[in-house]
Known about the structure:
- By secondary structure, the chain is an alpha/beta fold.
- 36% of the residues lie in helices and 10% in strands.
- The chain has three domains: 116 residues, Chitobiase, domain 2, CATH 3.30.379; 336 residues, Alpha-Beta Barrel (TIM Barrel); 145 residues, Alpha-glucuronidase, C-terminal domain (Alpha-d-glucuronidase, C-terminal Domain), CATH 3.90.1330.
Amino acid sequence: EDGYDLWLRYKPVEAAAKGPYAARAAAIAPARAAETPTLKVARAELERGLTGLVGKPIRAAAGSRDGVIQLSVAPQAGLSDEGYRIRTEAVNGKTTTVIAASKDIGVLYGVFRYLELIQTRQPVDKLDIASSPKVKLRMLNHWDNLNRTVERGYSGQSIFDWWRLPGHVDPRMVDYARANASIGINGTVLNNVNAKADSLTPPFIAKAAALADTFRPYGIKVYLSARFSAPIEIGGLKTADPLDPAVAAFWKAKADEIYKTIPDFGGFLVKANSEGQPGPQDYGRTHVDGANMLADAVGPHGGVVIWRAFVYSHEQPDDRAKQGYSEFKPFDGQFRDNVVIQVKNGAIDFQPREPFHPLFGAMPKSNLGMEFQITKEYLGFSTHLVYLGPLYEETLRSDTQAHGKGSTVAKVVDGSLDGRKLTVMAGVANIGTDRNWSGSQFDQANWYVFGRLAWDPEADTRAIAADWAKMTFTNDPRFVKPVVDMMMGSREAAVDYMTPLGLHHQMGRSHHYGPGPWVAGGERADWTSVYYAKAGPDGLGFDRTPSGSNATAQYAPAVGACYADLKCVDEKDLLWFHHLSWDYRLKSGDTLWNGLVKRYGQGVKYVDGMETTWAAMAPYVDAPRHAEVTDYLKIQRDEAQWWRDASVAWFGSFSKRPLPPGEKAPPKTLQEYEAMTFPWAPGI
Ligand code: BDP
């Protein structure tokens, strides 16, 4: 095995457990009428899955008999358009399993769920399951360039083969669609947010259309990142001013042209006036002017505009963490109904840990979407085993207190807090041409958990990890329990060995790989590590309380007050919000310096533990996948140590305090650590 089959391996159920599954999978009822393409793929998936799991070919069989599975499209009360119901029913005295939905796509989702029940060895003899997604647009954002490099991608090249499209559609595109549909993803943005206008030219629209045709049966719509200055670059105009009628006309015509070839085109994703990308502010206009102009172009076709809130202006800010909120909050209520503001989970940039972004809960009159990063730009790329479920869950369960207690980020994202219908959860994809798709076996789990949380932002990420581990490897409890435990703690371990106690953005310059707490100078202060850690002889941390940047004031009063109060703030966010003396006493009784050093060490120790756990898993895992994970854990172990040693050397040069008892001095000098870097790191 090489990981290509992801969690859809459909390996035979053990002989001892097979009986009840075989009994419920005697046959699939034949189609009643001509089936839609979606029903055809649902039926094919069911056949494929059951044939693999039960171990004998399962085909359509006429006539009623026990153990038939029926696929049915009929109005279902209490389910959304994409929801499904799976029930064990008596039909003409025979026991049947009915997978029913109002629309064909629900049947496909139901089929995947049914197969998952068998894959995870759940009983299937008395089923009564109903499920509807809580978020409307569940999307991957590919940061894939047209030349097939992938920004922040660590899994090979882009899977979208723009050169050969549309003449040749790689069969892998079907497996991509199957995998995404199996976790409920229903949209994909094909190109990088740092977009080229070429993606909107006729040849590229034709290429995108070929992908859209391939993905359509799986319920997946394609979207494109739109470069705001496209009217100039490919439209022959002198300006991209959103209030210029010729510019609006360009976008209307462009939208019409796209919808002619891709009738169900999802819409545009836009990164504007951010990190040098063009945008409405170049013309003295606002995010509202830009987003609404595009929204009016795609609106008549049912399209949406997803406008990113990841902005920070080029003037040196006192605190980059405040900028998204400052720029967007004043516009609440002014965006069109088909505009979604897509907000990163935290206010800086996909760090191992960030408090939730203050925009969540702060724009009740706008559609606000979540953007998570699945690719691990700041979390060790694809060689560090870091299960992101707990990171996503921590953000989603954070309480914005926008309408009092219980106003969680999840309720903002699923729209229930303010009654919003157009809801989005997006994940920056970690998918590439590597055989295992995600660069490592365990990074597949991050794709998987993202999809499951987009379906239900309140789902439990431990349970999801268990489902994934069972389907991807084995149901043997001697494997599942230790591996899920290992996964669940892996993110906290990465926080500990990289940026403990609320530190952030301490990675190597630009590529963000390995420790770089000394990174200083250059183009922008807020691209350096020293800007964020503010280490000095007096102490460490970024003061975001009212005595500092006052970023805490961007949260609901109770939340901000807690973050600003040393007695209330959780120590995991301590140095995010506070600048503290090296001798500040942590809850453990340790000084800040001692506690910090210990944390780094704990992170390293956890990776030691993962190596030991994984070594013991050899009997349950095929040799190739076991060996790959073993190698990567060794890399991670060495690099966790590197992180610890370099960080201790750097921060020790300010604290000038001795190491706590039992902690080893870094084996190299600070200068040696500073000289270690990865000039050719991938994905920049
Ligand atoms: C940062 C990445 C950069 C992206 C940017 C974005 O370093 O490559 O272009 O975010 O989200 O995380 O636009």
